[in-house]
Design goal:
Elements lengths: L20 H6 L1 H4 L27 E6 L4 E8 L18 E4 L9 E6 L3 E2 L2 E2 L13 E6 L4 E13 L5 H5 L5 E13 L3 E15 L1
Parallel strand pairs: 2-3, 4-9
Antiparallel strand pairs: 1-2, 1-7, 3-4, 5-6, 7-8, 8-10, 9-10
InterPro entries: Sortase, Sortase_dom-sf, Sortase_F
Protein name: Class F sortase
Pfam family, one: Sortase
């Protein structure tokens, strides 16, 4: 797929991630995924630490040790409606990356998305809202390098007010966005928003 800017992604990027089928059958009050607190929101202070950008290389795996994520990555394209496609719901430990955009570790904004749950229970990014600033995200790349990202913020947005430019806009350093559903839950429409993790490259190995 030809590489294009992330602005090609519409605001309805993760609608298909957010049906909440498991909550519908098991009760939202008892099983709702964690949501980020105001303390984890993005601040005006920019973390000065950074690592040199890496050459483009497709990612194969994402690990977030602090919340127990260790998942393979599959390439995602766009649907006919202009939204980001999603991994198959049945594969609950599979995440995806926008393969027409920036690869994780090169200059720009790379995008990873995954389900919060499916009909059988919690999925790959169920605990994403519990992530804290400073946590490490590891992305294993096909060229043998591992890109290490530091979390700058974890925020939740209503779908109707999703900040496209803030999430998908161009960056002058290697940055990463990890997205799943979140916010209030409705039995008729599922989750009403999205949890977004903002991170930037601080090391490699």
């Amino acid at each position: 797929m030809p590489r294009v800017g992330n602005t090609a992604i519409a605001a309805v990027t993760v609608t298909a991630l957010c049906s909440g089928a498991w909550l519908l059958h098991h009760g939202a009050d008892e099983h709702a995924p964690p949501q980020p607190s105001a303390a984890q929101a993005r601040s005006a202070v920019v973390d000065p630490r950074s690592a040199p950008a890496l050459p483009p290389s497709p990612p194969d795996r994402i690990r977030i040790p602090s919340i127990g994520v260790d998942a393979p990555l599959t390439g995602l394209g766009l649907t006919p409606y202009g939204s980001l496609d999603v991994p198959p719901a049945a594969k609950k430990n599979l995440a995806g990356w926008y393969e027409a955009g920036t690869t994780p570790g090169e200059t720009g904004t790379a995008v990873v998305a995954g389900h919060v749950d499916n009909a059988d229970g919690p999925a790959v990014f169920y605990s994403l809202g519990a992530l804290r600033k400073g946590a490490v995200i590891e992305v294993e790349r096909r060229d043998g390098t591992v890109a290490l990202f530091s979390v700058d913020a974890v925020e939740v947005y209503q779908a109707s007010a999703f900040p496209d430019e803030k999430v998908y806009g161009a960056a002058d350093r290697p940055e990463l966005r990890v997205i799943t559903c979140g916010g209030p839950y409705s039995r008729t429409t599922g989750y009403q928003g999205n949890v977004v993790v903002f991170a930037h490259l601080t090391g490699t190995r």
